[in-house]
Amino acid sequence: QVQLQESGPGLVKPSETLSLTCTVSGVSTSSYYWSWIRQPPGKGLEWIGYVHHSGGTKYNPSLKSRANISVDTSKNQVSLKLNSVTAADTALYHCARGQALDNWGQGTLVTVSS
Amino acid sequence: DVVMTQSPLSLPVTLGQPASISCRSSQSLVYSDGNTYLSWFQQRPGHSPRRLIYKVSNRDSGVPDKFSGSGSGTDFTLKISRVEAEDVGVYYCMQGSYWPLTFGGGTKVEIK
What we know:
The structure holds two protein chains of two kinds. By secondary structure, chain A is mostly beta strands. Chain A is built from no helices and ten strands. A six-stranded mixed beta sheet of chain A has the order 2-10-9-4-5-6, with no helix packed on it. In chain A, strands 1-3-8-7 form a four-stranded antiparallel beta sheet, with no helix packed on it. Chain A is globular and about 40 Å long. Chain B is built from no helices and eleven strands. Chain B has strands at about 5, 10-15, 20-25, 40-45, 50-55, 60, 65-70, 75-80, 90-95, 100-105, 105-110. In chain B, the strands form two sheets. In chain B, strands 2, 4, 5, 6, 9, 10 and 11 form a seven-stranded mixed beta sheet that branches. Chain B has a four-stranded antiparallel beta sheet with strand order 1-3-8-7, with no helix packed on it. Classes of the chains: A mainly beta, B mainly beta. The interface between A and B is medium-sized, with 20 and 22 residues.
């Protein structure tokens, strides 16, 4: 059974870098693409980007090159870094499998505040 | 970006009655490989989204057959044949034919 678990700091200061990890079990990260999606409180879903196990990435242009997604196959983890954060980046951050998002983690809430 | 527009925003339904959610895309979702990458997700209160339907009409494993997807081009529909209490939540459509992937704004299904 595929399981994804997001983790990371729940509070980040404005202008700093948000760093999250998605730990995958039940399947190897050396297969599939891995995506990050976010959901501001009470709002809809925004796709952030994905990484392929080969290291290839694709991002949502709306993030203006602030995002970086990577995969560590030795740890079976996928990481998200988002720099220069503002209050607008406050959201529930989810990782999901593939470009078709067929399995999701439970999400982790990140608040951007001083 | 491809804009996905869902309607209605809110859908009160009587238990046991059918429900239908519409999703329209700002351009055709037929990809160059001939497939149409339109998915539906269910998000129950306090839970993560769960994919129900992919490529317009294919149900994911474990999804009850009361859920069905249909449509083509730019117009798509998710139907629930008989709504039960466990179906309460927000439903999203998503297109995967163009980058970036984009979602509809969501339809909140509630019991009348």
